[in-house]
Description:
Elements: H1 3-31, H2 39-53, H3 63-86, H4 106-117, H5 127-130, H6 133-163, H7 173-199, E1 209-212, E2 218-221, H8 227-235, H9 256-280, H10 284-311, H11 314-319, H12 341-354, H13 369-380, H14 391-411, E3 416-417, E4 420-421, H15 424-450, H16 452-455, H17 467-481, H18 503-537, H19 554-585
Antiparallel strand pairs: 1-2, 3-4
Amino acid sequence: MTVDGWLTIVLFIVVLTALAVPLGGYMAAVYSDERTWLDPLLGGPERLIYRALGVDRERGQDWKSYAKSLIIFSLVGWLLLYLILRTQTVWGFSGLNPEGFHSMPANVAFNTTSSFLTNTNWQYYGGETTLSYFSQMVGLAVENFVSAAVGISVAVALIRGIAGRSGRSLGNFYVDVTRTLLYVFIPLALIVAILLLSQGVIDNFRAYVSFKGITGVSQTIAMGPVALQEAIKLLGTNGGGFFNTNSAHPFENPTAFSNFVEMLAVLVIPAGLVFTYGKMVGSRRQGLSIYSAMMMMFLGAVVVVYIAEAHGSPAQHAAGLHTAYVNGAGGNLEGKEQRFGIASSALFNVVTTVTSCGAVNSALESFTGLGGAIPFADLSVSEVIFGGVGTGLYSILLYVLLAVFIGGLMVGRTPEYIGKKIEAREIKLVVIGLLVTPLAALVSTALAVSSRAGRVSIDTAVTGHGPQGFSETFYAYLSQANNNGSAFAGYSGLVQPRAGNLGAHGIGLADYLGGFTMLAARYIPILFVLAIAGSLAAKRVAPTGLGTMRTDNGTFVVLLIGVITVVGALTFFPALLLGPVVQGLTGHLYP
């Protein structure tokens, strides 16, 4: 551990908060249909889009109509992206496939389409060796914008349901998506792309560069339109890398400054949405209390990972592999970029796993047992520590409603939240909505590790079927269920058939099971969130009285963190014991 490392973490938190507060106020104006400084520039294009879609922006939708529009919109997006990936070879005439890549096979295309539609961006392929520029831009980059906009729209609908005054309208889905794209993502993506370009991130349509190195070995350097896709990959908490090594690749993340910018880009919108929530419900203290809970859990995760990686693992100490810095401080540098070091790698690790981003600047499977357990823990609380754009806010609001109900029962007060009674219907919807993601992860993991077809996806040549092998499998489905996309790289969906295994069947299971896991864990909770929003929107607001439990103070923050921790621990602790915890206690390098 170093002073510079701790200063980097502190500076990041300060800058994040300083950016999130004004951005939150701006987004509140966008979704409250107030005038913004971009209206003179974007008002005309916005009206043209509504006219082309036949949308009446003044016509609100109840939760069922909102959900129906969302499902239809997403289904069309899935079909279009699948078609692009399956016909990639056909688009060679456009000049945007200079390497002549073939179209994706059906199983990989199914998984990839489901992945990008659900804002997961799980990748069973190497971007620079599989996808044309056309597929990257017209397919994946567009879906990066759209899938993130869908998540924010659901969060805004829930806010309107909480803040509504005896009505049924949650707004208009198409208006929310359009305003998210025009007023939030496109301006921010341009700013981030310019910053990344200034640091050396590439953006071109050149053919790959081939040459012979000083040893005479032929090498190829991949090119491509990276900067703009990198910007929305981060801002939309998408995470899919243009290159296989993601943000560890120097063309995606060349400098320490670009690394800092990328981490900020991942968290700034999820953090800002919390302040958007406070302003839209008419109580900034409500937003601040949620932000405090998120930040406390985030800080705890960062501190544990940094200390664990700076100390190294028992296996490294036992084998005498405890890497030393030149200043004498030890640490685990395995799998980490020397450009960033331990502190920035640990911080990036937490930033990407508390959200649904999944971008990485180091190899997660190379972290120590304790350092690798934190990503598991982050995913185990189901996107409530900032979380993905939109998904993080509506997920933690479900926990807020659950905490209100539990707290009310504990102190004998009527469960109320911002003047609205929380009754049996809402709690049933909350509980079911919170259970979908854990069930999807656990059931998928059980199917994978208990079947021969599933086990071939583990890199048995290196890790065997011990704690590391289980960790790889569990993390894969936990990541996909949480629409995160990061991975322990030993788990593969592209297993080659070989003697004695079911390679071909393994490919089908990993790709299709993962795809269905992502779709179910994304859209089923959304339906329950919208149902809760509709139920709350129809309730009348009761005046605050002496029996009302406050939800904007430190006591409630502690209660909220406790509820999140207990639910996450009860759900996933046994599975964590079988993988990263056991691995962290072993003295063997490869269990």
